[in-house]
Amino acid sequence: ALAALAEAFQTNALRSFLMGEQLDAIVRALASRGIPVALLKGAAMGRTVYDSPAARLVNDLDLLIPSDRVDEARAALLGLGYRAAGPAGRGRLGRWQRRYRAELQMVGAAPGREGLLVEFHWSLVELPYLIDRIPMAEVWASARPCPGLPGALLPDAATLLLHACAHVALHHSRSLRLIWLVDIDRLARWAELDWAAVADRATRWGLSLAVQEALGATAAWLGTPVPPAAAAQLAEAAADPV
Length: 242
Known about the structure:
Blueprint: H1 2-32, E1 38-40, H2 41-45, E2 60-64, H3 70-78, E3 82-84, H4 86-89, H5 95-100, E4 103-108, E5 117-121, H6 128-133, H7 136-141, E6 144-145, E7 153-154, H8 157-171, H9 178-188, H10 195-205, H11 208-222, H12 228-238
Parallel strand pairs: 2-5
Antiparallel strand pairs: 1-2, 3-4, 4-5, 6-7
């Protein structure tokens, strides 16, 4: 078992190195156009709550960009040898996708990046009610430069935890994966996390129930600690029938 785990880690370490090269190229291409970009999900986790990016398996690159820079970001990746996938790949990136999908998928087509999926997001979730309610200006204002990746930003710890919980509860409640629970557990134990900010934003952003449910599932599996004051505020807000 140890030999199998060691081999899997080495394989993922190589994959992580190659994906890191692509991420650096993408960030530089966006920065050259003055497009802000922040890391989400696996790309952010491997650079924060894991010992290294190689310790967190990543299947694609999730990047946050401003909603008014989507077309420019797509053009930047087209120049790197990527092509649009999904509705946008069929020539449809209209107001409905921007409204209900809030995501643009790009797939590597050039040698060395074939099949690599890059997902641009301009909201933390893809539900229109929450797209309207979550103030992205606040998300961007609390982001900080990403160490070791010039031009990229990292959302603060509270935003990363809220996003991880919302991702599980709202988008994958029927396909729970242990890796997502480990992400939440590590974020919850991170010394940089401000639990007061988590509870406050979850309440204002309409995510209290999603956060409460995701933390409850993680606690059941991994014993994730949640401070009583934060748990009480989340429970009070989650009881709102709306």
